[in-house]
Design goal:
The complex is a heterodimer of chains A (about 260) and B (about 450). Chain A is α/β, with parallel strands linked by helices and about 260 residues long. Chain A has 9 helices and 10 strands. Chain A has helices spanning about 45-50, 75-80, 100-110, 120-135, 150-165, 180-195, 210, 235-240, 245-255, and strands at about 1-10, 20-25, 30-35, 55-65, 70, 85, 170-175, 200-205, 220-225, 225-230. Chain A has a 6-stranded mixed beta sheet, sandwiched between helices. The radius of gyration of chain A is 18 Å and the shape is globular. The mean pLDDT of chain A is about 90. Chain B is an alpha/beta fold. Chain B contains 10 helices and 21 strands. Chain B has helices at about 10-25, 30-45, 65, 80-85, 120-125, 130-135, 145-155, 390-395, 400-415, 425-440, and strands at about 95-100, 100-110, 115-120, 160-165, 175-180, 185-190, 190-195, 200-210, 215-220, 220-225, 230-240, 245-255, 260-265, 270-280, 285-295, 300-310, 315-325, 330-340, 345-355, 360-370, 375-385. In chain B, strands 3, 4, 6, 7, 9, 10, 12, 14, 16, 18 and 20 form an 11-stranded mixed beta sheet that branches. In chain B, strands 2-1-5-8-11-13-15-17-19-21 form a 10-stranded mixed beta sheet, with helices on one face. The longest helix of chain B is centred in the last third of the chain and has 20 residues, at about 425-440. The chains are: A alpha/beta (about 260), B alpha/beta (about 450). The interface of A and B includes residues 90, 93, 105, 109 and 144 of A. The complex binds adenosine-5'-triphosphate and magnesium ion. Magnesium ion binds next to helix 1 of chain A.
């Protein structure tokens, strides 16, 4: 499904700003991969580069979805391929109602893939169901998108969009941080209920906490722009216990 | 050596004024006095073409207007369908239609609402309805302002709206000023006088539509008297054609605990000005002045918004939003004067702009002049671009850049659109906004994104 090959990326227009320093990663269909790592190690950058954010340049390597390079695709085209990024810091958009925006997103995906648009009626039904599923206050989604939302509400709103858009590859960038235990459980239940042989997840997190609810197939440790260790769920427990110190040393040696 | 220069363009109007005065020589003496005094003021001022040292016109070049010739006294005909297609409409509203300055009983829709007197201004003048003799041109037309002076010199017909004390007409009163598609460039002087009695609630929609294809001049003057406890919700929709000049004035006088809310929707004309002044003249009066302007091409839209806090315990709020593209230009000049006696005044001013292109220009100057010492006041103005992080967020969900920008522009406008409460009015301004966004986007460039 997703294959990252020797990916190097820098910040656009800033010399010597390489953040990703050769990442190799393969996420198979239906797999859940967790990426853990200390602050500033490049986790969000990786997530954003995968989605095609404008302020990074890929200087080397490739990213493939089902065997095809996506590096030349615009973010919306990547979304049409089934990619989705839940943001660590979702944008606040005054005056735009989540309902309208999600309908527009779904319509353009249908357009791009030559499918029929969902009727307003069916969409409303789906939307209401998902609102209930992610436990978001229905009054919130009548308001402006993310404007004045609390941190937790923003994350739930990201989950709402994830549930409505039903992507085949979902990248969650610290969707768990800033959540209370109930919200954390909702995020985890959302991911678990959407887990299927057809859908893959890349879950970026700082904490083992989320991984108590979502059992990953594979855990990667990202330090200073490189994956320094890959293992099973037990790797997350190791990090929880000993921190990232040992891996930092490894990164120094490799550098 | 000194050279005497005549005020600009006075000669272009003097013949028309002379024949107008002669044709109306049987008018009431008080009205003739109002007209001739206004004409005297205009002939001293002329069209304001001097910008340097002239705060009022510093950012607005009226020389193209001063160079044009406009015909007077020529009217055309319009159908109800044309009016309904060009502006907001609801059969349930009490509607006064004024075509080329003349009240049309045939096109108006007045349903005998209790407590409401609405209809022809000329008729109200000739029958001396209410306080018209003391009210007309008492707020606008005697001041040293060229366009109210010129408009008042030609004051004749238009719309008169009076709401009796304690009346509460539940339905909006719609006043439509139509410029017909009769040929030639014509000047018109739309006039509206609103007399809101004590403890009334009045909703007034003032619409300007223009069916002509050539440059027209419209100098509307609105005077509003809000008696104690009156609530006036005023809406203004300006839909001139893109060759026309529209320089409108609204003057409001407010007594105890009255409230005046005005929301403007301005998209038309090559040069348009919305000049509002509210006089908070008794304790407890409040006003809220809102507006949304959108400009493209080489359009210019000015908001000249001022409020005087003359007495204590008054509240004023000015909040405008603009969306600019192409080589267009907008001016927001917000002014609040708090006089010495006006303690416990509360005043806010805000002007937010979205610039979509390199060539678009906004001149925003909110200003507060405070002579009292116990006052709460705040002001601010911003000019921003479409935010790239936000764009990326929308794009990452599958919306392409063009559509994402449209969503963001629509979102920026939403807060103002929501102020248009009557349903048919909201639907109209929403539709025009949605039609306008692709035009704005077509003239946008990468610099409009930051
Ligand atoms: N657009 C940018 N411009 C400049 N520096 C950047 C930019 N994006 C990321 N960086 C830098 O790259 C490094 C990695 O940032 P990134 O946000 O990817 O880290 P992270 O692993 O997600 O951290 P956290 O755990 O705090 O979320 C940081 O040093 C950051 O300051
Ligand atoms: Mg991060």
């Amino acid at each position: 499904m997703l294959e990252i090959k020797n990916l190097h990326a820098s910040v656009l227009d800033i010399d010597d700003s390489e953040i990703l320093k050769g990442i190799d990663l393969k996420v198979g269909k239906g797999e859940v991969h967790a990426i853990m790592g200390p602050n500033g190690s490049g986790k969000s950058t990786l997530a954003n580069v995968l989605m095609g954010r404008f302020d990074y340049v890929v200087t080397e390597g490739d990213v493939l979805i089902d065997g095809n390079s996506i590096l030349k695709l615009r973010p919306d085209q990547r979304a049409h391929l089934g990619m989705f990024l839940a943001f660590q810091y979702p944008a606040e958009i005054p005056g735009v109602r989540p309902w309208q925006f999600l309908k527009a997103a779904l319509d353009s995906k249908a357009d791009a893939n030559g499918e029929d648009k969902m009727s307003v009626r069916n969409f409303s039904k789906l939307f209401d169901e998902k609102i209930e599923a992610v436990g978001i206050n229905p009054n919130l989604v009548k308001r402006s998108l993310n404007e004045g939302f609390s941190g937790g509400e923003k994350k739930r709103n990201e989950m709402l969009q994830l549930e409505v858009l039903q992507p085949s590859l979902a990248i969650l960038d610290e969707t768990d941080s800033g959540l209370d235990v109930d919200a954390l459980r909702i995020v985890a239940e959302g991911v678990n209920s959407m887990r299927s042989p057809e859908r893959s997840f890349v879950v970026v997190t700082h904490y083992q906490r989320l991984l108590n609810y979502i059992t990953p197939d594979v855990v990667h440790i990202l330090v200073k722009g490189k994956i320094v260790k890959t293992g099973g769920p037990e790797l997350a427990l190791e990090v929880e216990k000993d921190g990232y110190k040992q891996y930092m040393a490894e990164a120094e040696v490799n550098a | 050596m000194t050279t005497a220069t005549l005020p600009a363009a006075v000669g272009k109007y003097s013949e028309a004024f002379a024949s107008f005065a002669e044709a109306n020589s049987d008018a009431p003496e008080w009205l003739k006095a109002v007209r001739s005094q206004a004409w005297a003021t205009f002939s001293e001022l002329g069209i304001p073409v001097k910008r340097r040292g002239n705060e009022l016109w510093k950012y607005t070049d009226l020389r193209p207007l001063a160079a044009l010739d406009f015909e007077h006294g020529i009217g055309g005909s319009v159908s109800l369908d044309e009016i309904k297609a060009a502006g907001p409409w609801d059969d349930a509203w009490d509607t006064v239609v004024v075509v080329d300055g003349v009240f049309s009983a045939e096109l108006s829709n007045l349903q005998g609402t209790a407590g409401l007197t609405a209809g022809s201004l000329a008729e109200a003048i000739s029958s001396g309805t209410g306080d018209i003799e003391t009210q007309l041109a008492s707020l606008a037309g005697r001041e040293e302002y060229a366009f109210t002076a010129l408009s008042t010199a030609f004051v004749d017909d238009g719309a008169y709206v009076a709401i009796a004390d304690d009346a509460d007409p539940a339905t909006p009163i719609h006043v439509v000023f139509v410029t017909s598609n009769a040929s030639g460039s014509r000047a018109s002087y739309p006039r509206l006088l609103v007399d809101a009695g004590a403890n009334t609630l009045a909703v007034i929609i003032e619409t300007h539509i223009n069916l002509a294809e050539s440059a027209q001049l419209s100098l509307p003057v609105v005077e509003v008297f809000a008696k104690p406890g009156a609530t006036v919700r005023h809406y203004r929709v300006q839909m001139e054609n893109e060759l026309s000049y529209h320089l409108g004035t609204i003057r409001v006088h407010q007594l105890d605990d009255s409230s005046f809310n005005s929301t403007t929707f301005a998209v038309g004309a090559v040069i348009a000005r919305n000049d509002i002044h509210t006089q908070l003249d008794a304790p407890g009066a409040s006003c809220t002045l809102h507006g949304l302007y959108m400009t493209s091409g080489t359009q210019q839209q000015d908001q000249e918004i001022s409020t005087t806090h003359a007495k204590p315990h008054c509240t004023s709020k000015q909040f405008y939003k603009g969306i600019l593209s192409g080589k267009s230009h907008a001016v927001f000049s917000g002014k609040v004067v708090v006089e010495r006696d006006a303690q416990k005044s509360d005043a806010t001013q805000k002007d937010l702009n979205l610039l979509l292109s390199r060539g678009a220009e906004i001149d925003a100057k909110p200003s507060l002049e405070i002579y009292a010492d116990d006052v709460t006041a705040a002001h601010g103005a911003t000019a921003g671009h479409v935010d790239r992080d936000t764009l990326f967020y929308l794009q990452s969900r599958g919306v392409d850049e063009e559509a994402a920008k449209a969503i963001l522009i629509r979102g920026f406008a939403a807060e103002m659109l929501d102020e248009f409460k009557p349903k048919a009015l909201y639907e109209f301004v929403e539709r025009v906004t949605d039609e306008r966004i692709p035009v704005l986007l077509a003239e946008s460039d990468a610099l409009g994104t930051a």
